[in-house]
Design brief:
Radius of gyration: 18 Å
Number of helices: 7
CATH architecture of the largest domain: 3-Layer(aba) Sandwich
Order of helices and strands: EHHEHEHHHH
Structural class: mainly alpha
Shape: globular
Largest sheet: 3 strands, parallel
Helix content: 40-55%
CATH topology of the largest domain: D-Maltodextrin-Binding Protein, domain 2
Strand order of the largest sheet: 2-1-3
CATH class of the largest domain: Alpha Beta
Length: about 160
C-alpha cells in the first residue's frame, strides 16, 4: 500500500537467480511482505554481479539493486561508490553463508577430521582461499532452517 505512489516508476535489478544475497533473500522477504517486484517496479532484471548493480545505481542507469553487504562495504571502502549515490534501504537478518555440506553416510572419523580442519583453519588461509570470512564455525540444522524456507518459498513462486 505504501508503495502505490511509486508503482512502475523505478527500475530494480537482482544480481543473479543463483545468488543468495542478490536474489534469494531479497525476493523471499519481498514475498513475505506481500511485494511482487514485477508489479511494483517499472522494470526488473538480473545484472550478473553485485558490483555491477552498485555501479549501475551510482551512474543512474538503475534505481535499485540487490547486493551482498560485503560487496557494498568493499566498494564504499575502495571509493568505487559512496553513501550519497548508493544508500542502503534494507538489510536482511543474518543468514548462514557459504556452507560446506556433507553426505550423512560419510564415516564419522572422516567427518570429524574435516570439521576440525575447517573450524581450526587459520584466518589468513581462509582469506587466501578468496573468501571475506575470518574462518568457519559449526552450525546446527536449526540455524540453517531459514535457508530451507527461502528455497521452498522461491520454488513455489
Amino acid at each position: 500500500e505504501k508503495l502505490q505512489p511509486f508503482k512502475k516508476k523505478y527500475t530494480f535489478t537482482f544480481t543473479d537467480p543463483a545468488s543468495t544475497s542478490g536474489y534469494a533473500v531479497p525476493r523471499f522477504f519481498m514475498h513475505k511482505a506481500g511485494i511482487k517486484p514485477e508489479d511494483i517496479f517499472k522494470k526488473i532484471g538480473y545484472i550478473g554481479a553485485h558490483d555491477a548493480g552498485q555501479l549501475a545505481v551510482k551512474h543512474k542507469i538503475l534505481d535499485f539493486a540487490a547486493c551482498w553487504d560485503k560487496t557494498y562495504e568493499d566498494m564504499i571502502r575502495d571509493g568505487k561508490i559512496d553513501t550519497n549515490s548508493n544508500m542502503l534501504i534494507w538489510i536482511s537478518d543474518e543468514i548462514p553463508e557459504s556452507p560446506i555440506a556433507y553426505r550423512r553416510d560419510l564415516p564419522k572419523d572422516v567427518l570429524e577430521l574435516l570439521k576440525d580442519a575447517f573450524v581450526k583453519m587459520p584466518e589468513n588461509l581462509a582469506r587466501i582461499q578468496g573468501t571475506p570470512y575470518k574462518g568457519y564455525r559449526l552450525i546446527s540444522e536449526e540455524e540453517f532452517k531459514i535457508v530451507v524456507e527461502i528455497k521452498q518459498v522461491l520454488d513455489s513462486l
